[in-house]
């Protein structure tokens, strides 16, 4: 595998699909910001904001190895699991089109957004706080440890009574698109400034 180091300085480059595997080591602040990673490319996001707003398309891998490394990044289509093992490593990340994420520490996936056919698995209390479901086509959040979804709040916008949205392990829902069988957030469970959609 070929390794390419990206130093400091904002880089707005589009790394297209590669004929052979290439790994980009994003070692500087904003060094891979807004980069589009394609097939057979991978990125190690090693400092704060290294991969901010990056897009990982089908066949690409992104490793968020430090807090805020992948702030606002997007992971599209089925591919390698998005591993969020560092606190706030995957903050404000968006997964869509069948991507799956594993959130293993507190606040690993805070402010996460889950789109069509995608799933986040949360294994620690607070790992997936303030999650948003952005579609009615089967987003899922799975809690696989004691208390792993305690106080988890999921926002469902869009279509009323979303089809296929799944909740397990004590998450509550607010917004116009909550599934019929989802427990609704009330009282203290409502986030600050949530407005009338959370009573």
In short:
The chain contains no helices and 17 strands.
Q: What do these coordinates show?
A:
- The chain folds into 2 domains: 1-80, no CATH class; 84-188, no CATH class.
- The chain is 0% helix and 29% strand.
- It has strands at 2-6, 14-15, 22-26, 36-37, 41-45, 55-56, 61-64, 74-76, 82-84, 94-96, 100-103, 113-114, 119-122, 131-133, 140-143, 153-156, 172-174.
- Strands 2-4-6-8-10-12-14-16-17 form a 9-stranded parallel sheet, with no helix packed on it.
- The N and C termini lie far apart (53 Å).
- The relative contact order is 0.09.
Question: What low-confidence regions span 5 or more consecutive residues with pLDDT below 50?
Answer: none
Tally of distinct domains: 2
Strand residue content: 25-35%
Mean of residue pLDDT values = 78
Biggest sheet: strand arrangement = 2-4-6-8-10-12-14-16-17
User: Distance between the terminal alpha carbons, to the nearest Å?
Assistant: 53 Å
Strand elements, count: 17
Largest sheet: 9 strands, parallel
**What is the C-alpha radius of gyration, as a whole number of Å?**
17 Å
Number of helices: 0
Order of helices and strands: EEEEEEEEEEEEEEEEE
Helix/strand/pairing class, anyone? Answer: mainly beta
**How would the global form be characterised?**
elongated
Helix content, binned percent: under 10%
